[in-house]
Amino acid sequence: MDKRRINGPEISVKPIEKKSTQPKNNKDDGIRKNNRSVDNIRPIFIKPNVIKKANGSAYYEAENIKIICGVYGPRSSKRSMVSDEGTIYCEFKFAPFSCNKRCGYIRNAQEREYSLIIQQAFLPAIRLNLYPKSSIDIYVTVLENDGTTACLAAAITCISIALTDAGIQMYDLVAAASATCIKGNICLDPDASEENDTNSKFMLSYMPSLKQVTHVLCTGKMEAEQSIEAIGICIDACNSIKTVMDHCLINSH
Amino acid sequence: MSATTVTPGKKLGSIQEYEVGPGTYMRNNYIYSSTVGDIYIIKDVNKKLPCISVVKDKEQSAIPEVDSIVTGKIIRVNPKMATLAIMVVGNKPCKDDFQGIIRVQDVRSTEKDKVQIYRSFRPGDIVRARVISLGDRHSYYLTTAENELGVIFAQSISGETMIPISWQQMICPKTKVMEYRKCAKPN
Amino acid sequence: MAEVSNKDSFVLDANTFAKLHPKEFYRKFLTNNIRPDGRLLKKFRKTSINLNSIKSAEGSCVLKMGKTSVVCGIKAEVAEPRVDDPRKGYIVPNVELSPICSSLFKPGPPGELAQSISERIDKLFKQCKIIDLDKLCISEKNAVWVLYVDVICISYDGNIFDAALFSIISALKNLKLPEVTFIEEEGKVEASEEKTISLELLSTPLSATYVVFDKKYILADPNEEEENLSSTSLTFIYNEQHKLCGISKLGGIPLSKELIQDCTESAIERTDNLRQLLDSTMKNL
Questions:
Q1: How far apart are CA A187 and CA A190, in angstroms?
Q2: CATH class of C38-283
Q3: B-chain residues within 8 Å CB-CB of A253?
Q4: CB contact, 8 Å: B111 with chain A?
Q5: What is the domain extent for residue B26?
Q6: Buried b (16+ CB within 10 A) or exposed e, A16-32
Q7: Which CATH number is A39-252's, of 2.40.10.10, 3.30.230.70, 3.80.30.20, 3.40.190.10?
Q8: pLDDT single digits (tens) A192-246
Q9: Which of A18, A221, B172, C47 has the lowest tally of Cβ within 10 angstroms?
């Protein structure tokens, strides 16, 4: 019983989906559903400066993934330890209506883990020595979720745009790509149904101009050679995502 | 938007051609851009190489830097210091207030040991000060020990805006009561 | 840059003056019958809505009212009904004001503002018959629908109550539930894949908020600054038959009867405009 919110009944569940009696029109002769190729990334749309009250913000949309990010800072840090460098604080949250099953308001362990991952992904990229005693606060809300690893990668890309929109100096933009292993092939940008079918998740964030990887996340069953292959494939994907980011920033400048 | 708009991480040139300016950084003998914006190359007579910088249209939120002039409101006084909520840095308002303190030895430049904080500042006064250092955990350290620094706006006990009559005193125009403040010299 | 000087002959530029003496800054505009953002005193901000953009929710609405943006999403789940009311379903509204929308809000559990707005909307649903909760019944005594109505504020620039209420009504009007059957033996509810059933709203109450500045200026649809500087806030809730569903006067100074009656006509006009906007947006879907 959350005393600070309006509460519904103690237990509520999602109704079970009726197993459809007609066989689904199987257009999937390839490896992936919907005839997507192995290295297909869903088309990305990014728009900066959507939250007027924040220092910087960005909205990211790729088919059924919708993410909004707000950056506040540099501002005085409440958690300050005296430091010559600025600090990054990140909060990642799924909106209650974003996933198939409703998530609550309190951050669960996965959201906390993702917040830390994002912090690590950006530590090498932001010029923190220019912002002593200040904190850069990043808040990400996922409005519609279609693949949690893909959402995490999308969030990192979205945050890079928001940080640049806020005027925060960075060594380079950070692009991120996600992948999974389906029938022995590394497939980029998995959606929710593909993620449910496999049990391997791979996410990589990369600084394209400096050619440096800032964070790798690999969970589940994946052979060693496959993970090395996945790194190469994701780096290529990040380079193409970088062109989208550059295009978006230059057009809105 | 122009042909010279760049994004973070773009290689601009080598350190033999340019000097590093705001919005750029040096790595491995090359200069890269660190924000999105237009490239400006300024030739300075005093320096050997032209300075390259990348300037963004939308201004970043201002943060107080050492030696910058800040303006803010006094929120707390105690016998050792006055606490200021820094609202404006130079000419740029801050989105979120920072905190600064003016210690008793930094109020004025003469007779530092005879300073009484309550006769220099009161809560609610608008004060112009200079940043001495990044200070401690919570606050920047500020000083008003110059003629142009100090109280620029204060209200008397009766609620009227007071007029400065000397660097130490202000008078309420309605009730003609005199109150003590460390005033800034009007420009 | 325009310069303003105060009595002490310190010349400040307009942005600094607005930050250090906000009330004085507003007074200078209001004496000329205009507000700093260019609006007339009784003018509401431009409002736009976008329906059904979030496919994971059963109903959704993205609303922009000036710089205030909210996203409302409705998720439908199934639960056992209350023992004393075996046919009634549940509607659970919640408004979330998180740090993403403004630096005013700290991370953590909802603060006073969010709690009070959620509570006011919950009371409105309980007291005004907006939805017939019996229609949410799947199988009496066994299963009813629970509609979780969550409003996330993305950008906060004042007047969150109007924005939240309008987004909730818009999302409810566009709600699409699947067909369900209750399986007696297993005690479970089975749903079809397509979502086709919509919910009929018995009434559409919408609100208009005003604030009072300096005891004499009434400002409609306040932004964040105006909310902070004013002493009282006044909200009218009207339904489509121009019947008053609620008034709240929050805070501060006493108001005369004339001042309150002055706002009612403008409030009725505003709520009618919002209803027209909703109808025309639904037609264009």
A1: 7
A2: alpha beta
A3: 1, 5, 36-38, 56-57
A4: no
A5: 5-55
A6: eeeeeeeeeeeeeeeeb
A7: 3.30.230.70
A8: 888 888 888 999 999 998 899 998 999 888 888 888 989 999 999 999 999 999 9
A9: A221
